[in-house]
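Something for you to look into today, if you have time. Just paste the record in under my message, thanks.
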Amino acid sequence: MTDLLQTPQNLLPDKRQVAASFSRAAGSYDAVAALQRKVGQQLLDSLPAHCAPQRWLDLGCGTGYFSRALASRFPQASGSALDIAEGMLVHARKLGGAVHFIGGDAERLPLRSASQQLIFSSLALQWCGDFAAVLGEARRVLEPGGILAFSSLCVGTLQELRDSWQAVDGLVHVNRFRHFEDYQRLCAASGLQILQLQRRAELLHFTDLRQLTGELKALGAHNLNPGRPGGLTGRARIRALVDAYEGLREQQGLPATYQVVYGVLQKAD
């Protein structure tokens, strides 16, 4: 059943384009990252009570917000921050938090085996085409008893925007994400023990469509799909999109749902 639900890797964004997009967004990211901070804090709060690593990795560190949070929480530990986007690393290095800042790919970590006691990754792994490889690398890099804590996005994220575009032209204008069932299946097959794996909806509201699309651009998370429509979007289609989305307006504003996956996995002792 889950095989039918799986998002093919060639339908997920190209990681070079992901890296370039987030590098460009390094300067604007933090100003619009309220949801990202909320999700990351909830992930941090979900760490097991016994988790007290001497070596941790912030995987997909972005601007380093949670590298600094991890350094504050585990002041005696040695931390590393890794991201595929060099622009993000440049920004993060200036603010500190980690001992090491590393350019690298979550699917091929440039780290020694059994070198980390905690891998923390918040809202980064949805951009990885091969999630099984990410889990395999986490298992390799973790010490026995080590923890992988991640948050990611799944199908249903920005569904309101997707449905509104579907009503306009039927083309793909919104990033694709895996089904939650794929996360369940791949985590179960990873060789890591699942301590927690759940999906939680986060609902945001925006004054208008321009505010939503402007925030996505500032985050570097606008449409990165392969096969996305090229060129400029005509005024008539934008007007039709606005009209379609306005039909979903709630009292608080235009809704935008994020379906967030939270996972806490442990490598066997």
